[in-house]
Hints:
alpha/beta
Amino acid sequence: MSPVEKPRPAAASGAGAAVPRAVPSSTGPLLGEGERVRSVELGRLTLTVRSREPAREGLPPALFVHGLGGSSQNWTALMAELADTVDGEAVDLPGFGDSPPPDSGDYSVTGHTRAVIRYLDACGRAPVHLFGNSMGGAVATRIAAVRPDLVRTLTLVSPALPERLPQRTAVPTALLAVPGVARLFGRLTQDWTAERRTGEVLALCYGDPARVTPEGFAAAVEEYERRLRLPYFWDALSRSARGIVDAYTLGGQHSLWRQAERVLAPTLLVYGGRDQLVGFRMARRASAAFRESRLLALLEAGHVAMMEYPEAVGGAFRELLSDSGRLTHGVDDRNAAHTTPVSVKGD
């Protein structure tokens, strides 16, 4: 396997500094109340960015990064919960949501990392409070490690960090990394109804799928069907899954665990007791790896706690801000002690 480069800012990549340019979004994304979506061109890279009006001016910026098969919509509930705390934006990674696939065809964790860094370097909002879920958690970890100047705090919800023995329930998702398996699965399930497809996804990701409202389920069905019609859907999914598997095998300075140890930003770790994709047992190792971290353990949550329990995740994030002093003072104390308070909550 070829070595992975350290992601670099756009100005140092030889392409010159990329300046965002708003262009109309043609795909008609689903919007939550108060949300807006814009497409941003960064040279040959185009990203779709979801945002909502903050409760007041002057709030610190935040950026939310989704996981494998997800989109910026995954953050709608938490963005609404934190509208009085941060000025939030959520990005669709290349090939997901409403962002077109990358010209380079690079769906590796480092490729997605470069895309987010390129946006942060161009948008003028950094440093941000950076959030990541699942694959987005791996991306956010890598950003915080290699570009600490871009990150104020780091919040990771079930981050996709390497596990020695993955859960059996996670194996089918990992198999998507095998060439041809994703399209084979698509053919084998082509007779499934849209409702069944969506139900299977929710059952995998939620601790309790019954928490999804009928309106939310209908919106999820509509969005899933839209994405299935995209010609690059299975390619983006399988190549990104392969990128996660490849990232798990890297050692040395490129190891995700080694990079977690390099993160300087105060970190909130969120793990779900019913997570079928990332083992709940990984919470202990992550708490030890991130030097200034705290843990929120939600025993009834699955893989997407920010969608299931946005109030709990939002409250823990506000505590992180309060304790670190960054919201009111902008303090950047890189020598703070490593603390790991644990909060365990049920339903």
